[in-house]
Amino acid sequence: MIKSLMSNLPEKSQPASHRLHKPVLMTEVLAALEPVLKNSTTENPLRFFDGTFGRGGHLRAIMEAFPTLRAVAVDQDPEAIAYAKENFSEEISSGRLQIHHCNFTDFSVEKFGQFDAMLLDLGVSSPQLDQGLRGFSFYNDGPLDMRMNNASGGEVTNAVTAAEIINNWSEDELNELFQQLGEVSRPYRVTRAIVHDRKTKPYETTRELAGLIERVEGWHRKGHHPATQFFLALRLQVNQELEVVQNSLLPLVHGLKSKARLAVLTFHSLEDRIVKNKFKEFADEAQGLGSPVNKKVIQAEWNEAKDNPRARSAKLRTFERA
Q1: Residue 147 contacts by C-beta under 8 Å, 6 or more apart in sequence?
Q2: Confidence grade of residue 290 (pLDDT, cut at 50, 70, 90)
Q3: Residue 11 pLDDT class (50, 70, 90 cuts)
Q4: Where are the beta strands (DSSP E) in 211-289?
């Protein structure tokens, strides 16, 4: 059934979004949600919530696979909202899709209602990673920013930038940050160099910081930039990503109808551990909210991991409401 859903997707549903951001575990996400969404009909259209629109790769495929579905999508990135309005204008004008500029942590049943299926893709979209101006890339130069929402007038604001952390935090605080969020076992040489060099000139761009890490750490693995885990730690801290996941899952589960499903894609062990433990907590006798759909986490098959490097660390967990 799922293979036929994928192969029958119209051509227009693939190139625009997939060239920019190839959605990971697409077949597996469809398989996780299909038992619920297959019941959507013209007379009784089901509701789908996309808490991380990005560039709409997953949403496009899901809406094409289930053509009577009605969707609500949110994203804190103003560029994602602009992209949605331009590339999903038909769905928006027809009333099939509502798009909101906010974070999924703002979800409440009172604000959005209840849904038959939900998806969170906690990865950073390819345009965010690849465009130097956003401050996420260690290959392309840009301001050392890393805020997911960098629009001053948005509903979501991040006051702290990566540059402020690098230039103002103490050496001990930076060590703790890189060890806990970046899982860098020995960041000491890098943090010592940061604290030393910033006395002469504060860090302002991604290449300044990435260049220092390259120089101090050196390249140990082909294809794995030495700044990867350091940049990850900064991004998680700037956007409070772990706290957002920790605090958002319960309201989202309360937003599920009976037998509805929430699918969550994570891309590193800290996020996956939170999702795993939260789903177990929701399923225990005290809460009794439902149960995880699969006993083991779902990961990309070898072919997908080979073709799409960003799928290698992806993990999918799904929760079904009682």
Answers
A1: 135, 158, 161, 238, 239
A2: very high
A3: very low
A4: 256-266
Helix, strand and coil percent figures for the chain, each rounded to 5: 50, 15, 35
Condensed to tens digits (0 to 9), the pLDDT of residues 245-278 reads 999 999 999 999 999 999 999 998 999 999 999 9
Q: Is 274 helix (H, G, I), strand (E, B) or coil?
A: helix
pLDDT digits (tens, 9 = 90+) for 43-65: 999 999 999 999 999 999 999 99
Q: Which position has the token pair 């969404």?
A: 37
Query: Is the domain 2-127+242-321 a CATH 3.40.50.11420 member?
Result: no
CA distance 315 to 317: 7
Domain boundaries, the chain: 2-127+242-321, 159-239
Contact criterion met (CB below 8 Å) for 74 and 40: no
The CATH H-level (homologous superfamily) assignment of domain 159-239 is: Putative methyltransferase TM0872, insert domain (1.10.150.170)
**Strands 256-266, 115-121: parallel, antiparallel or unpaired by DSSP?**
parallel
Could you tell me how many residues make up the chain? 322
E strand segments, the chain: 47-50, 70-75, 97-101, 115-121, 256-266, 290-292, 298-299, 315-321
For residue 51, give the nearest of 232, 243, 255 by alpha carbon: 255
Structure tokens belonging to residue 175: 């060590």
Is 53 within 8 Å of 84 (Cβ atoms)? yes
172 is written with which tokens? 């001990």
Q: What is the pLDDT of residues 207-253, one digit of tens each?
A: 999 999 999 998 777 667 898 899 999 999 998 999 999 999 999 99
